[in-house]
Design goal:
The chain has 280 residues and is of the alpha/beta class. It is 41% helix and 15% strand. The radius of gyration is 18 Å and the shape is globular. Bound molecules: zinc ion.
Length: 280
């Protein structure tokens, strides 16, 4: 991996883009399946069984190591459900979430999976998105993205009966992701196999069940939107140099489900997102 400066400098961005472009070209031309099959022993390092009880953000810069991942650990769900995070009573989630079935379901599915601990991180795109939503509500006051990310992770830890593990720094100071992984694996850590997997967001698709499944695909759209914006590589993503949506599946069935769920999202990005499937 490249050493990065702390600034959102274009020199760092250029260097990192060029570092990962040969692998991006291989993925585009040969497909992720072939890239993986040719380096299978290393690729499998990214697919260890989940041992962590922690949920983290989908952000490509947070440490994934066997964790579950979603947009700021589910914070993006609160935008859709229009929840005021400040008034959410985490000590009494049954009452607090009565009117928000999507969030109640997400939390109870995490509990069923044994997830207890949470963490948040600085400069979170999902945190910023929530703060933007919050600040648009006329009577709620104001909030920053950092505050939103922290507050949700703290409250989620209380609801899960676990620990909040802190507000982490991330590097580099821009979004270096070239892909978003839609993972059916127990745990997926692209950073463990950097010569097989491009830096990317990770959405633990199998942690979204029933009515929340469509939300997992929306998180993929959010990932692409962040990377196509001012904090990511933006206009460098083109039809020739696409951002990748990669389904990480264990079976043919999962691969087909992932493809079906993502195709309508891919269509929104005018050829700048390429959908691929890996059966690992
Ligand atoms: Zn984040």
């Amino acid at each position: 991996m490249v050493e990065n400066g702390h600034k959102n400098g274009s020199a760092d961005m250029n260097t990192m883009w060029e570092t990962h472009s040969p692998l991006a070209e291989q993925v585009k031309t040969n497909g992720i399946q072939k890239v993986f099959d040719e380096k299978r022993a290393r690729g499998e390092q990214a697919l260890k069984p989940r041992q962590s009880k922690t949920i983290t953000c989908m952000d490509g810069r947070t440490e994934k190591k066997a964790k579950v991942a979603a947009a700021e650990s589910g914070l993006y769900l609160l935008v859709e459900s229009k929840v005021n995070i400040r008034t959410l009573d985490a000590e009494h989630p049954g009452d607090a979430l009565r009117n928000f079935p999507a969030i109640r379901k997400f939390v109870s599915d995490l509990q069923d999976a044994g997830i207890k601990n949470t963490e948040s991180h600085k400069s979170c795109g999902a945190g910023d998105l929530y703060a933007q939503f919050f600040n648009e509500q006329k009577t709620w006051g104001t909030m920053t993205g950092d505050e939103a990310a922290k507050l949700w992770a703290q409250k989620l830890a209380i609801m899960l009966g676990g620990d909040y593990r802190g507000h982490k720094s991330v590097e580099p100071g821009f979004h270096p992701e070239r892909a978003a992984y839609y993972s059916f694996a127990d745990a997926f850590d692209p950073g463990s196999a950097p010569d097989v997997f491009l830096p990317g967001y990770v959405i633990s698709r199998n942690r979204f069940k029933d009515g929340n499944v469509s939300h997992a695909a929306k998180e993929m759209a959010l990932a692409a939107t962040i990377s196509f914006g001012g904090h990511g590589y933006g206009a460098r993503f083109t039809k020739e140099n696409p951002f990748f949506f990669i389904v990480i599946a264990k079976t043919q069935e999962e691969a087909a489900v992932g493809r079906r769920e993502l195709e309508p999202i891919v269509a929104q990005f005018g050829g700048r997102v390429q959908l691929q499937v890996l059966i690992a």
